Amino acid sequence: MAERPTDTAEDLDDLLKRGAAALGVALDDQQVAAFRHYRELLLEWNARINLTAITDPREIVIRHFLDSLSVALGVPATLRGEVARVLDIGSGAGFPGLALAIAFPRWRVTALEATSKKVRFLREVASALHLSGAHALEGRAEDLAHKREERGHYDVVTARALAPLPTLLEYCEPFAREGGVVIAPKKGDLAAELAAGGRAAAQLGGRMEAPVPVTIPDVLDDARVLVVVTQERPSLPLYPRQAGAPSKHPLGQGR
């Protein structure tokens, strides 16, 4: 098989713009330039601290940027152009939170991350890209969710590759306002995880919707879905439980 030609920066910009459009997200030239700068910062910092195992620029566009923007498919249409409050739990290098902040500048995005080095990177990106609506917060979900000013505060709560659904939902749902949504990108054989996740969602005051398929032909086509939970009532005060309990004793087990 012949090697794929090396992509130019313009090729990558075009891939991003076309892929985003396929997801219903329109990016202007300024936003595309911001993503290019983000990619440069990610690779520069990754040489010093471990932010991502993905270092091929094309794969960064696909597996980080476009995968992050796919979260928009799970956001109610009424919120897309509004000043929505968005929380990204376990943001890591800013995915999906900071990518969404670039694409939706009216959103107020909080990137929650427990690792100090990663928080410094998130703050550097937000500053360098002039993302006035985004900020990075250092801490753990199981602690922050019990703070009055954070609990039930967000329109959209998301987390990527954080944990199996029952654990992920216990971390996320207490942050969602009534009528807000939790959005979790997932892929693979999810039958058992969805069943347990649906039971956990109900215990936490939510209702799991039908999974939303994510496909960009010839670009992102590997059976990805968004698991969306609508928060119908506040989570009980005991959730999330202390660190370790949500993963060691996950909700939603049994029939």
Write the layout of secondary structure elements.
Elements: H1 9-22, H2 29-46, H3 57-69, H4 77-80, E1 85-89, H5 97-103, E2 108-113, H6 116-128, E3 134-138, H7 141-144, E4 154-158, H8 165-172, E5 176-187, H9 191-203, E6 206-208, E7 212-216, E8 220-231, H10 245-248
Helix pairs in contact: 1-2, 1-3, 3-5, 8-9
Structural notes for this entry:
It is a single chain. With 255 residues, this protein is an alpha/beta fold. It has one domain: Vaccinia Virus protein VP39 (Rossmann fold). 38% of the residues lie in helices and 21% in strands. The protein is built from ten helices and eight strands. Strands 1, 2, 3, 4, 5, 6, 7 and 8 form an eight-stranded mixed beta sheet that branches. Helix 8 runs parallel beside helix 9. The protein is globular and about 50 Å long.
Query: Measured on Cα atoms, how large is the radius of gyration?
Result: 18 Å
| Name of the top-level CATH class | Alpha Beta
Q: What's the average pLDDT?
A: 95
Note poorly predicted spans: none
Annotation, overall tally of beta strands? 8
Helix and strand run: HHHHEHEHEHEHEHEEEH
Task: Look at the helices and sheets and give the structural class.
Answer: alpha/beta
* Second CATH tier, the architecture: 3-Layer(aba) Sandwich
Domains counted in the coordinates: how many? 1
Please give the oligomerization state of what you see: single chain
CATH topology: Rossmann fold
Helical content band: 25-40%
